[in-house]
Each structure stands twice: as C-alpha cells, then as structure tokens.
Amino acid sequence: YPACEHTVARRAREAHMKRFCKAQAIQRRLEEIEVTFRELEQEGIKLEKLLRDENGSPADQQTQWTNQLLYLVQKKNSLMIEESDLMIAVQELKLEEQQWQLDKKLRSYMDREETLKTPEDCKAEQETLAQLLKVVNERNLLIHIQEEKRLSEL
C-alpha cells in the first residue's frame, strides 16, 4: 500500500502543478489581451479623429482609414472571443481543483470502517458527495457552453 499511496500522491502533485502552470499561462495571456485592447482603443481613437476631421482628405485616404478602423474592430472582436474562452478555461481549472479536493476528502471518509464512523462523519460524507456532484455538474455545464459556442462559431 505505501508504494501505491506514494504513486497516487505523486500523480496528484503532478496534476496540481499542471493545473497551476496552465492557470499561469492563461493569466499571462489575459494580461497580454488587456494591453492589446488598450493599444487597439488608442489606435481606434486616432482613426476616428482622422475620419471626423477629414476636411480635404482624398476619398481613397478616407476609405483606407475606414478599412483600418474595421480591421481594428474585427481584431478586438476576435480578442474578446479569445478572452471569453480563457475565462471559461479559468473557471474550468477552478472547478477541476475543487473536484480534486472534494474527491480527496470523500475518499478519506469512504476509507474509514463503517463501524467506526460517527453520525457526524456520515453527514459530512454525504455533504461532501453533494458538493462533489455540484462541481461535476458545473463542469459539465461549462463543457456544454464551450460546445455550443464552438458550434455557433462554425
């Protein structure tokens, strides 16, 4: 048993570190998106001013500015979609971590001998199971949302 427990503990640590690294990468990307949003906003403001103050500008110049503005809007929309996907991924990671914690807690209750469990232990075990089911349902809902989003984008 000790070797098996050691392996399970090692795999749990590895999974935890994997989630942690993924969360850090997501956070970095969200920060990059925020910076890009600000840059796009500033560029858009400049283009809007140019279009408003178009006195004497050639028509092809105005068309070019309009096209640039539309490109900025498209880029901003694609970044918003990416940001939305990343926020869902963050929520999924949180739920995955909660599920892991609750699963660990539930196993500790279930590993106890039934005759040694107090009524409080039985109640706590049932509450933990209910929380675990809630988390699993929330993760399922997130997966469903992602799938619907993916299908709507197609």
Q: Which secondary structure elements does this structure contain, and how are they paired or packed?
A:
Layout: H1 2-52, H2 59-110, H3 119-153
Helix pairs in contact: 1-2, 2-3
GO molecular function: monooxygenase activity
Domain BMERB: 13-154
Subcellular location: Membrane
Question: What do these coordinates show?
Answer:
The protein has 154 residues and is mainly alpha-helical. The chain has one domain (2-153). The protein is built from 3 helices and no strands. It has helices at residues 2-52, 59-110, 119-153. α2 runs antiparallel to α3 (119-153). It is elongated, with a radius of gyration of 25 Å. It starts with a helix and ends with a helix. 2% of the residues are buried.
List keywords for this structure.
single chain, about 150 residues, mainly alpha, about 90% helix
Would you kindly provide a brief summary of this structure?
The chain is an all-alpha fold. It has helices at 2-52, 59-110, 119-153.
Structural class determined from secondary elements: mainly alpha
The overall pLDDT average reads 90
By DSSP (H or I, 4+ residues per run), the number of helices equals: 3
Fraction of residues in H or I helices: over 70%
Helix-strand topology string: HHH
Biggest pleated-sheet summary: none
Distance between the termini: 50 Å
Strand content: under 5%
Provide the low-confidence segments as ranges.
Answer: none
Strands, total number: 0
Provide the number of structural domains: 1
The Rg value, from CA coordinates, equals 25 Å
Shape: elongated
